[in-house]
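Q: What changes when FO1 is included in the input?
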Amino acid sequence: MNADRPIAPTRIAVVSGGVGAARFLAGLTDAIEHGLVDGCREADEVTAVVNTGDDCTLHGLSISPDLDTVTYTLAGAIDPDRGWGLVDESWRAMESLGRYESVRPEGSLAAPRWFNLGDRDLATHFFRTARLAEGASLTEVADEIRRAWEVPVRIVPMSNDRLSTIVRLTDEHGPGVEVSFQDYFVRLRHSVPVESVRFDGAAELAPAARQALETADAVVIAPSNPIVSIGPIRTLAGVDELLGSRRDSVVAVSPIVGGAALKGPADRMLIELGHEASVVGVARLYAPIASVLVVDTVDAHLVDAVESLGMRCVVAPSVMSTPERARLLAARTIDSVR
Ligand code: FO1
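A: The predicted holo structure follows.
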């Protein structure tokens, strides 16, 4: 099968980062199974277009955290507490790497242990790395991996090319210090102030991603970090123009609830980069590409402020603390643009 040409027509495309998007997609699958999504009967009519700006190479392995988080979540295999990696994981390979720390020469990056790869998770990175080395595209490999996990939702990377999210730290870390996204997020525990974010690499929107965004009846921007999860996808040539041209059928779900991010550093990052950590700040970022913003009930008092920016504001419980809440949020979100 050519993974660049999905067989089932895409009814719904979901522009996705990691954990928040994965939970939304699980809710959407559930909503479709419960018959709550008009005109959509099977989960294979959904395509997730996934951020790969967080991808990294460690131990020589090609690691795509957001693709894996979406796949494992939809397979029901994610560790529910961490939100990443596999449930019932063991860490013997990571522990065994400790043996080499004492002999690692100064300056060598071999045997890093700050990024935790579980024993079972490693199999996914082995497979991805080997298939890419055989010449397969990331689109093909992502499709093979989701089929191996029997996930019906189509999962496509935003690009087959490498585009790396680079975080510039404020000057207290030294002038102009830049780190990779995973360095910032995991090694530095996203606890350091950020000066700016840029995306490095000449990457194009993957054909399967373009097809999904062009042909879907509705496009959802998942509740993911607008800067470092949705930002890399939007930076690809033509994406904002494409979404802007079909803005009436694009809905965004705010990842900010009551002025705070539910997970990760989105709230702090928005402020550090000169935006507002509120649904109004999110609306300013998404108004050019989406006609509707879904906000949580705690933000109901900000409906007028959002609507003054030219977006319709839908209020719904948006904290996906149970599968039922995720299902209802997904159904309500799709309903708002159909
Ligand atoms: N997140 C962490 O906070 N610590 C880790 O050691 C870590 C390892 C890891 C391994 C594989 C994987 O797919 C994800 C992993 N993550 C880890 C999560 C990842 O850094 C983030 O989910 C995203 O990149 C942000 O969306």
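Observations recorded in class: The first helix runs from residue 19 to 33.
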